Structures are given as C-alpha cells and as structure tokens.
Amino acid sequence: MPLTINTNLSSLIVQSNLKQSTSGLNQAIERMTTGFKINGAKDNAANYSISTNMSTKISAYQVAEDNASTGLDLLTTASDSLSLISDHLSRIRDLTTQAKNGTYGEESMKAINSEINARIDEIERLYSTTEFNGIKLFGGEMIEGSGSSTSSMSGFLKEVTKRDTSVMTTLASVDENTTISSGTYSISTAEELAKLATMTNNGKVWGGEFVLANDIDLSAYSTGEGWTPIGAGSREFSGKFDGNGYVIKNLYSNHINGTINTDNERIGLFGWLGSRSSVKNVGLENVNVTGVYYVGGLVGYLSGTIANCYATGKVTGDSTIGGLVGINWGATVTDSYSSINVTGKSRVGGHVGCLANGGVIKNCYALGSVIGNSDVGGLVGENFNSSGTITNSYYDKETSGLSSISILGISSAEIREKMLAAGWKGSSSGASGSTSSGTVQDILFQIGIHSNADSQIALNTSFALANLDELRNIGLADGNYLETIDNILASISAKQTEYGACQNRLESALEEINTHYENLVSSRSTLRDADVAQESSAYIRNQILQQASATLLATANQTPAIALQLL
Questions:
Q1: C-alpha span between 473 and 7 (Å, rounded)
Q2: N or C of the chain: less Cβ packing under 10 Å?
Q3: pLDDT range class, residue 546, cuts 50, 70, 90
C-alpha cells in the first residue's frame, strides 16, 4: 500500500468498522431497553407482520375474556333475583295451603292475604326492576287472568303530563258533612278515595274536581263486600276525576247478594257517573269486581265521559257486564282499553257490556276472554237498537274467543299498529304485568374473536309470570291457587335451568379463551421477544469493537504525518 497524504485508506477502513460496531451497539441497547428483538418491520418484515396479527388477536381475546366474565355477572344477577322470586312464591304457597284450612276467620284471612299481597307486590317489583347495566332482564309479559294469553300494550294510550297537586286542597282536610260543588281537591291515599265515595253516596258531592297525587293500593278493602263504589245505589257522581297518570291497584268489590237492587247493581270503582261527570287519565290494575247488573272495572253505569283510562283483571256479573264499563248510556269513551277477563250471562262485552242511547266508543280496544250466554261481544256485548257509534276500536280475537262475532276482531299485533297510527304514544307507565316494548330479545354474549355464531352465545333472559294477580285475595273467592303457584314455580325453575346451562357455557368459554390467549402470547414471545443474555453479549462485543476502532482510528489518522518526515 503506497504512503499517501490525500487518501488515508487505513482510516477509512477503521471508520467503516466503527460505524458497524456503533450500529450493533445501538441495536443491542434498543433490544435490551424494549425487550423486543423486532422493533420495526425493517428488523424482520415477515415476523413483524405475523407478531402484529398475533397482538391483535391477543387483545381481542382479552376483551372476549372480559365479555364472558361480564356475562357471568349478568346471569348471576338474574339468577339471584329469580331465586328471590321463587322464595316469595314458596312462602305464598305455604300461606295458600294454610288458608285452605277451615279454621281461620275473617280477620285471620285478612292477615294471610295481607302478607300474600305484599309478597306479590315485591315479586312484581323484582320482575319489573331487575336489570344489569341498563338492560331489563325479566322483560317478558306478565299475563293477566285465568288462562289468558294476553299480549297487552301497556301504558296510557295518551301521554299524561302530571299536574302539581301540592297547591290543591287535600280531601282529607275537608269535613265529610261539607257539600262540594266547586274547587279542586287532591287525593293521595286509599282512605281519601274512600272518603270521596262516602261523601258522594251521602249526597255531598255535586261538582268539583278530584285529582290523584299518588298511586293508590286498595288492598285494605278486600274483605267482605270490599270496595263501595263512588256513586252507589241511586247516587251519582257529578264531579270531575283526574287520575293524573297514576294507578289504582287491587280494587276488590263483591256485591252479589239478593236480587237486582241498588246494593248489587252499578258496581265498579265508580257505580254511576252522571251526565256532568268525567273521568280521565287513571289506570286500574288487578281489579276483581263482582255484581249482578251494570258491572264494569271502572264504572258500572256511565252517562258522563271517560278518556285515557285502562283496567286489567277480571269482572263477573249477570247482565250488562263490561271490562271497563257496564253500560254506556249516551256517553263517550275515548282513548281507553281493558285487559279484562269478563264473565256474565247477557250483554257481556270485553270493553262495554251495552252501548245505548247514542253512546260513543272511539279509539279503544279490549283484550281478554269474554264468556256469556247471549249478546256477547269481544268489544261490546250489545249495541242496543244500533244506536251507538264505534270508531277505530277493536278487540283481540285471539284472546276473546269471539272471532266470528264482529268484524272488529283482529290480532293484538294489528291492534297495536292501529293504536299507534291513531296517536298512541306508547308510554311505559302502564298496566302491571306488561311491557312497553314487548318481549326482550336474545342477549348475545360475544365470547370469541370472530363475527360468526361460533363466537357468540345467545340467551333470552325474559319470562312470563302467568296469572300472578289471581293469587291475591286467596280464600275470598274460589280458585285453584296451588296449581297456579306450581305452574309459576315450574316456569321459574325452567328459566333457572336455562341460566345455569348458559353459565356453564360461559365458564367453558373462559377456559378456552385462556388456552388460546396463553398459546398466542407464547408464540409471539418466540417471534418477537429479545434474548437478554444474547443481546447483552452483543452489547459487550460491540462496545469492545467500538473502543478498539476508536483507538486504531487515532493511529490511522497519524499515518499521513509519517510522509512529512520524508521531506
């Protein structure tokens, strides 16, 4: 090699090796500090792509594991609530068996029914409020009535804006001997409602408006003849009644003694609504009304107006018996429905027993069974002399069993469509034992990383509590209560079995997810993780080479100076 000044080949060779050792040193430092031997596609393009795909799947399996665990939490919530419902039903069965013994008087039966009703209320609360992360779990239909397959659309047909009752005079503060002809009064308790009945029947109410301030439970009036109608006998109610979007529950009225007289006719929450009266925005749930003549869940004899009301339960009588109204005498009923099992002999209707003297029914429907001997109809038993007018009103031919009686009989699904078309808002604040959105759809648990069915488990958590309200007032009326309870318990047991089977599947899925996860993590580690021992050796080797290159570079840089010694 010639001795030159302009070109120092030795220095260039050393510089090249210094760059290589420095690059190797930096790579070793990067691998040891990140823990990965592949930190970018340039390190190993094929393995980088494979490990990236593995990382995506690993992340997905972590989410799937969380999904399965959350699904187990949901099922535990549902199962625990269902166990509570089952416990309440078991206690109700014990009380029912006790009530069948003939050694209990009226007060004892009242105490038994008080506990039964309280437990039924709690069952209904659990049924309607059990949810997980905003998902209602028991959203099926609570079927009313004996043997009915009612699929009712719950809630008032028209949306109700509640009025402020705090500024109104409470009826409790009014002396019973006072005559009311004007003013607005609030009613908050069963006692106040009973006071309205007493004052009306004593001829003290000739006007005024009465507004509900709360939901009211009439279970306290469930012995003997039970509830005394507002406007009983020859007295009519002539005021205005606004339910204010609240519900009156557990109306029991049993007036069947003797021949037709003022004690057993005009039976309902209201006995006789006069021509100046009006009732609106009130729901009746679990009515059990029995009379002889002019019997209805809401009113026996109607001459006033009814708007935006509903009733559920059962009504029994002799003649002119209706789910909502016994007889509509020249009155108007709008935007109302009944989900009632009606039984009578003549003039028996699912909604109105008899429509007479130009009465009007508009935008109404009826659900439930209707049983009678003559003049029987799913919506109206008899339209007397064809004088009444029926507009946009229907009955469910599937539940009434009267599909051949009238062209007004259609399916419940068709009724829903027609009511929505007529302006029904579908409010959720309605009849006990039904839901605004129908049966809950299947809940899908995503327990895999793919979109096909193999990565999902479906379960419908909803179920129906059939005939639950029939268990109220045990011992006060005939009924095969034990069979009803056993049927409900059987349906709950079947649902618990579904929950348990699904829990087993989710636990199995968790084990599978953990297996896939561990294997993928191990494979990715083989491809991408750095061997620290190997990288530390490379680090030391490159560090020594770097130091050697630096020392030799200094020597190589002195070579041109030797040429100057020749001058």
A1: 114
A2: C
A3: confident
Distance of CA 489 to the CA centre of its chain: 20
Distance in angstroms (rounded) separating the CA atoms of residues 76 and 500: 9
Whole-number Å distance between alpha carbons of 149 and 398: 8
Contact 350, 322 (CB under 8 A): yes
Assess whether pLDDT exceeds 70 at residue 140: no
Condensed to tens digits (0 to 9), the pLDDT of residues 193-220 reads 999 999 999 999 999 999 999 999 999 9
Q: Is 306 helix (H, G, I), strand (E, B) or coil?
A: strand
- Give residue for tokens 């069948």: 100
pLDDT of residue 516: 93
Residues 35-44 have pLDDT tens digits of 888 888 888 8
When pLDDT is cut at 50, 70 and 90, the band that residue 326 belongs to is very high
Contact present, 377 and 352 (Cβ < 8 Å): no
What is the residue whose two structure tokens read 């019997």? 295
Phi and psi at 217, nearest 5°, equal -105, 120
Q: Give the chain's end-to-end CA distance (angstroms, integer).
A: 19
Q: How far is CA 465 from the centre of its chain?
A: 13
* Least confident stretch, 32-46, 232-246, 346-360: 32-46
Q: How far apart are CA 449 and CA 56, in angstroms?
A: 10
CB 402 within 8 A of CB 368: no
CB 268 within 8 A of CB 241: no
Helices (H), 346-430: 397-400, 412-421
d(CA 143, CA 394) in angstroms, rounded, equals 20
User: Mind listing the pLDDT tens digit for each residue in 100-137?
Assistant: 888 888 888 888 888 988 898 899 889 888 889 888 88
| CB atoms near residue 410 (< 10 Å) | 18
Pairing label, strands 443-446, 456-459? antiparallel
The contacts of residue 477 (CB under 8 Å, 6+ apart) are 254, 288
pLDDT at 187: 97
- What count of residues does the chain have? 567
pLDDT > 60? residue 264: yes
Residue type, 151: S
Report d(CA 349, CA 395) in Å as an integer.
10
